[in-house]
Amino acid sequence: QVQLVESGGGLVQPGGSLRLSCAASGIFLDDYVIGWFRQAPGREREGVSCIRGSDGSTYYQDSVKGRFTISRDNAKNTVYLQMNSLKPEDTAVYYCAAEGLWNIPLGVTIARAMDFIGEGHWGQGTQVTVSS
């Protein structure tokens, strides 16, 4: 059974940092694309970043480029999202989600891979609040 558990959220001042963790069980990271999404109150869910297990390639939404870094630790079966220089507009519930590589058409760029992450495997979310 696939399970994703996020942790690491909290309250931080603007300019601060947080590291989110997505601990996965029931899957091998090498076989999946893992994405981080966020949803702020009153707004639609949006993709933030993802990492492809087969080659480690990564994607970032423009608003977080240069501030967020996605990484993985296969030994711990965990994907991280290091968030630096946080802004109030980063406030949201952050979710991680997984999609098997077999469900993503060959040749799809990593930037498009997030579009193929379905509703099957999601964590419960962790709240990130950026406020002074």
Summarize the structure.
This protein is mostly beta strands and 132 residues long.
Q: Indicate the mean pLDDT.
A: 96
Distance N to C terminus = 40 Å
Radius of gyration: 14 Å
Strand-pairing-aware structural class:
mainly beta
% residues in beta strands:
over 45%
Main sheet overview: 7 strands, mixed
Q: What's the topology here?
A:
Elements (H helix, E strand, L loop, with lengths): L2 E5 L2 E3 L5 E8 L6 E8 L6 E7 L5 E3 L7 E6 L4 E6 L8 E9 L9 H4 L7 E2 L3 E5 L2
Parallel strand pairs: 2-11
Antiparallel strand pairs: 1-3, 3-8, 4-5, 4-9, 5-6, 7-8, 9-10, 9-11
Write up this protein.
With 132 residues, the protein is mainly beta. It contains 1 helix and 11 strands, in the order βββββββββαββ. The protein has one helix at residues 110-113, and strands spanning 3-7, 10-12, 18-25, 32-39, 46-52, 58-60, 68-73, 78-83, 92-100, 121-122, 126-130. The strands form 2 sheets. Strands 2, 4, 5, 6, 9, 10 and 11 form a 7-stranded mixed sheet that branches. Strands 1-3-8-7 form a 4-stranded antiparallel sheet, with no helix packed on it. A hairpin with a 6-residue loop joins strand 4 and strand 5. The longest helix is centred in the C-terminal third of the chain and has 4 residues, at 110-113. The termini are far apart. The mean pLDDT is 96.
